[in-house]
Amino acid sequence: MQPTASRVTRRALIAGGGAVVAAAAVAEAVNLRWLPGRSSMYRALGLNGQPGRIPDVTPVPTTSGSFVSKARDGRTVGWTIAAPESSEPLPIAVALHGYGGSHRTFFGNGLGYDRFLAEHIAHGGAPFAVAGVDGGNRYWHRRADGDDPGAMVLDEFVPMLEQHGYDTGRLAFTGNSMGGYGALRFGGLLGASRVRAVAALSPALWTSAGDTARGAFDDAEDFRANTVLGRQRDLDGIPVRIDVGNGDGFEPAVRTYVDGFTTKPTGGFEPGAHDAAFWRRMAPAQITFLARHLHA
């Protein structure tokens, strides 16, 4: 019976070895994007790195309010501004939320920028303000039904910030996911004469209309009119930082976008998913980048 047992063991080992090789081949095919499931694989294998933590410090003060937006067809739009005490007008970064977010996304227990900013200033960093505003789930551009969160930001919210005493001559845009796309879009629309910096967290980008998420654009024509791919030159003269995780489903399109710059953006690709854990980990570097260029 011993030879039979030995043969069974060898067969099991051969079969097991074949399964390992097959699994490795599948994993590599997923990693190379030949098969779907890359984000799930990175998460299951623990390849997304350590989660970022909101610092345990007293946050800079925040103020919230709302206004009725003509650009958004009379919708009431909420806003929040996080700003340290200052005797002079502060430069300001407009923070655009992702899908399902709100004007509160970047503050409090969301992404905690009011605390990250306080820590940055406590360590000697240059002060600035961060402002969030409600854009709905409309991907920060005019839609066929007339709702235009892009015009709301540029034509209503930014002037309101100036009326509140902020130095919109030193203006930056940041955002996560859908908001990262919006930040890149707004930077390109206004150009270097108006925008000091753009910092995008995991921007929601697609290389073709057929790949887009439902509701992101009205149709293929809307996508072509508003995509930022192919329009990298619109950001010439503006310092750009883009951070995205290797386990993020948007990583392939973002990489294509980044490769289209003559001067590559700051930031890059590192372990991380499309989630708050990654965005919080990137927050200190993003804030340092914004502060440097808002005070340049």
List the helices and strands and how they pair.
Elements: H1 2-31, H2 38-44, E1 62-69, E2 75-82, E3 91-96, H3 113-122, E4 129-133, H4 149-163, E5 167-176, H5 178-190, E6 195-201, H6 220-226, E7 240-245, H7 251-259, E8 266-270, H8 276-294
Parallel strand pairs: 3-4, 3-5, 5-6, 6-7, 7-8
Antiparallel strand pairs: 1-2, 2-4
Helix pairs in contact: 3-8
Overview of the structural elements:
- It comes from Curtobacterium luteum.
- The chain is an alpha/beta fold.
- It has two domains: 2-35; 62-294, Alpha/Beta hydrolase fold, catalytic domain (Rossmann fold), CATH 3.40.50.1820.
- The protein is built from eight helices and eight strands, in the order H-H-E-E-E-H-E-H-E-H-E-H-E-H-E-H.
- Strands 1-2-4-3-5-6-7-8 form an eight-stranded mixed sheet, with helices on both faces.
- Strand 1 and strand 2 form a beta hairpin.
- Helix 3 packs across helix 8 (276-294).
- 43% of the residues are buried.
Largest sheet: number of strands, sense, barrel closure: 8 strands, mixed
Specify the overall morphology. globular
Question: Class by helix and strand content?
Answer: alpha/beta
Amino-to-carboxy terminus distance: 81 Å
Q: What's the total helix number? A: 8
Strand order of the largest sheet: 1-2-4-3-5-6-7-8
Compute the number of structural domains: 2
CATH homologous superfamily (4th level) name of the largest domain:
Alpha/Beta hydrolase fold, catalytic domain
- The whole-angstrom Rg is 22 Å
Per DSSP E runs of 2 or more residues, the count of β-strands stands at 8
Report the top-level CATH class of the largest domain.
Alpha Beta
What is the helical fraction, as a range of percent?
A: 25-40%
Q: What's the CATH topology name of the largest domain? A: Rossmann fold
What is the oligomer described by this structure?
single chain
Q: Assign the CATH architecture of the largest domain.
A: 3-Layer(aba) Sandwich
Strand content: 15-25%
What is the string of helix and strand elements? HHEEEHEHEHEHEHEH
Unreliable runs: 1-36
Mean pLDDT: 90
GO molecular function: acyltransferase activity, transferring groups other than amino-acyl groups
InterPro entries: AB_hydrolase_fold, Mycobacterial_A85_antigen, TAT_signal
Protein name: Trehalose O-mycolyltransferase
